[in-house]
Design goal:
The chain has 274 residues and is an alpha/beta fold. The chain has a single domain, classed as Rossmann fold (3-Layer(aba) Sandwich), CATH 3.40.50. The protein is 42% helix and 15% strand. The strands form two sheets. It has a seven-stranded mixed beta sheet with strand order 3-2-1-4-5-7-8, with helices on both faces. The chain starts with a strand and ends in an 11-residue tail after the last helix.
Length: 274
């Protein structure tokens, strides 16, 4: 069997989940044909982010975009993704630096769907594109990848589609899970490859739970490449009949934080009914 060839996408140059995947796959002799990184500094992307998350989220995102870490927070509640870095002894660096060190083509684009990005995917003819961020994929990108795009969705599918799936899972009464699936032309309607439970731990916060789902997704995506399905799973024709969730409103986030706090005292944080 030939060695799989992959392309990784990322939403910014210091995306820790993508760096972890790139390094873990490299160590397993997987050929990485390219890193496709979307610049976060375009006005269009900034406007969409502010519209979706609010202006306050921009300032919160700056340290992450620049690769800065709040060490005090890490000591207080260890970041699950950083635990993954420690477990595998992964060096923290930018994706561009990593790519330069390992002779991997690195390409910065203004949009994941522009001609440059789509052309790079089509020219590489990789076995898989692993989606690590960068925005909603349009038909041209999906078609260029021949539908072989792997994604880690932080919720159970098809029950919880869309945004903030990890948080909505708890609010709607579902067991949190990471679902590895194919990206197709619908919203989280592609064929499902595997599902991994996301444990809810004592003293979890919403942010901590989300990071645990991301860390689980990193290893799950790597496993999907190392042990791929014998044939691509079919898209779920019933998926679109299930709810699509959107960005969690601040009041609902506050409610979930309180439920998580109650869970630390022995109460189930999930909603009583689905």
């Amino acid at each position: 069997m030939s060695t799989p060839r992959i392309i990784l996408t990322a939403g910014f140059n210091h995306a820790r989940n993508v760096l972890a995947m790139a390094e873990l796959l490299r160590r397993r002799d997987i050929r990485i044909e390219g890193l496709l990184v979307v610049s976060p500094y375009s006005w269009g992307r900034l406007r969409r982010y502010v519209r979706r998350e609010g202006i306050g989220a921009v300032w919160d995102a700056v340290p992450r975009l620049l690769g800065w870490e709040d060490s005090a927070k890490d000591e207080e509640a260890p970041d699950p993704l950083m635990r993954l870095y420690e477990k595998h002894d992964i060096e923290r660096q930018s994706l561009s630096s990593w790519a330069n060190s390992h002779d991997v083509p690195f390409q910065s684009v203004t949009s994941i769907n522009d001609k440059e990005a789509v052309g790079a995917v089509g020219a590489a003819d990789a076995d898989w594109v692993i989606y690590g961020g960068g925005g909603i994929l349009r038909e041209s990108f999906i078609d260029a990848a021949d539908g072989r795009i792997l994604n880690a969705h932080s919720g159970p599918l098809p029950e919880v589609r869309g945004m903030n799936a990890c948080e909505w899972s708890l609010l709607l009464g579902y067991e949190p899970a990471v679902t590895i699936h194919l990206i197709n032309h619908g919203i989280d309607t592609g064929g499902i490859i595997s599902e991994y439970p996301v444990p809810v731990c004592e003293d979890d916060t919403v942010e901590h739970l989300r990071k645990r789902a991301v860390a689980i997704g990193v290893e799950a995506l790597c496993q999907a490449v190392l042990d791929p399905p014998k044939q691509l799973p079919e898209s779920r024709t019933d998926a679109a009949t299930h709810r699509q969730c959107f960005v969690l409103a601040p009041a609902l986030r506050e409610l979930l934080e309180k439920r998580l706090e109650q869970g630390a005292h022995g109460e189930d944080v999930r909603a009583s009914s689905k």
